[in-house]
Amino acid sequence: MSSLRLLGAAAIIAGVLVISFIILAPHTHDIQAPTPSPAATSVPAVTLHDSYTKGLHTITGTVEAPNACAIVTADAALSEQTSQQSILVRISLSEDSSVCLQLPTAMDFLTTLSAPAHLPIEAVVNDSAASTTVL
């Protein structure tokens, strides 16, 4: 008779544990989707250096890419969006679709432009204003 009581008590304890697990365990619909961090959506920092010789600006610089597999291209043009002329450096930073270590990397670029001396330089990355440091 005591083995029957022992089996009954074990069955009750096992039932309580199973029901508690079902009720208290997290379910997939309880997990929220991760939200993108602000760093992932921010515009990369751009560092520019302008070398002017005989009417030709040679603009070199670096842009912070999300990984070393990204492809960076740059071109420069005269811009008159404000009352004075300036040089607009358009940087294209393409996302790489292959598997790559997601570690921010400084990528170099170079572009040239024939323009007057001492013009301010602005930069955009993928058509968004960039935080620019001119050296």
Would you kindly provide a brief summary of this structure?
By secondary structure, the protein is α/β, with parallel strands linked by helices. It has helices at residues 2-24, 38-41; strands at residues 45-53, 56-65, 71-79, 86-94, 105-114, 121-125, 128-129, 131-134. The mean pLDDT is 83.
Q: Could you explain how this protein is built, in words?
A:
- This protein is an alpha/beta fold.
- It has one domain.
- Helix content is 20%, strand content 43%.
- The protein is built from two helices and eight strands, in the order ααββββββββ.
- It has helices at 2-24, 38-41; strands at 45-53, 56-65, 71-79, 86-94, 105-114, 121-125, 128-129, 131-134.
- A four-stranded mixed beta sheet has the order 5-2-1-8, with no helix packed on it. It has a four-stranded mixed beta sheet with strand order 3-4-6-7, with no helix packed on it.
- Strand 6 (121-125) and strand 7 (128-129) form a beta hairpin.
- It is rod-shaped, with a radius of gyration of 30 Å.
- The mean pLDDT is 83.
List keywords for this structure.
4-stranded mixed beta sheet, alpha/beta, single chain, 8 strands, 2 helices, 135 residues
Write the layout of secondary structure elements.
Elements: H1 2-24, H2 38-41, E1 45-53, E2 56-65, E3 71-79, E4 86-94, E5 105-114, E6 121-125, E7 128-129, E8 131-134
Parallel strand pairs: 1-8, 4-6
Antiparallel strand pairs: 1-2, 2-5, 3-4, 6-7
Structural class: alpha/beta
Instruction: State the strand order across the main sheet.
Output: 5-2-1-8
Tell me, briefly, the overall form. Answer: rod-shaped
Low-confidence stretches: none
Share of helix, binned: 10-25%
Tally of separate helices:
2
Give the termini distance in whole angstroms.
91 Å
In sequence order, what are the helices and strands, one letter per element?
HHEEEEEEEE
How much of the sequence lies in strands comes to 35-45%
Number of domains: 1
User: What does the main sheet amount to?
Assistant: 4 strands, mixed
Give the beta-strand count. 8
User: Rounded to an integer, what's the Rg over CA atoms?
Assistant: 30 Å
Task: Kindly report the average pLDDT value.
Answer: 83
